[in-house]
Here is the input.
Amino acid sequence: MAPIVVPRNASWPAYIADNLPTVLNAKFGPTGPTGWSPRLRQRFGYCTPDELYEAAVCALVNAETVWLDVGCGRDMFPSNLATAAMLAQRCRLLVGLDPSDNIEENTLLHERVRCTIEQYRPERQYDLITMRMVAEHIEAPEAAVAALSDMLQPGGRVVLYTVRKWSPAAVAAALTPMAVHHRVKRVLWDTAERDTFPTFYRMNTRDTLRRLFAACGCIEESFLRLDDTRSFAKWKSLATLELSLWRLLRRLGVAYPEACLMGIYRKASRG
Here is the structure.
């Protein structure tokens, strides 16, 4: 087994680069990945959007953090349970918010709240709010972001990780019924039907997110477009072709069409 290799990318901010080794070592262990898929990504010097999001959250969680994870479901980091467990132990309080009964299966949460963002009336404010693959499911963005801002301490942050609106997969999802979503996600990613929810893509561009958060007193502190080459990750030959195309487009200076977005928004401090 080859030791883990941490890819380098000059476009990654320090909070990603500094915490990526922690995330990858927790995920794969000191001897590195054992399966063909993570070894292939290592060979191409590619990190998944999930791993980069996990590194960002890792940078913001400390022993004093009061943390709300919105839309947490049964797993906060489905592809990296070890990092999720480490951060749940590191923070002062971790509250999960989700209207789905999947939240009852999440064993890492300190508290569970089963309702929507708009329905939640917390008795506290949070230092950190995370939203992993939730924004695409929000039907009323203005109300949701206003609620998030109310829950946030002055100086606190929201980390929002979602699908890019104009990615091919998102466009296809917007044009097809839910029954098709279930079938496609089951074939490509082995996703259960109970983990597939309606999508609206009403807050899935940088300009829209910046506008929504600015209207509620939050500034964009950081924003990344994360290339996503996981469409055919189940099949080695197709995954290799996908990564090869990604590498070619990078060399040509062309943006990879399939991508996720990650923004960090900070609430203005009083005074």
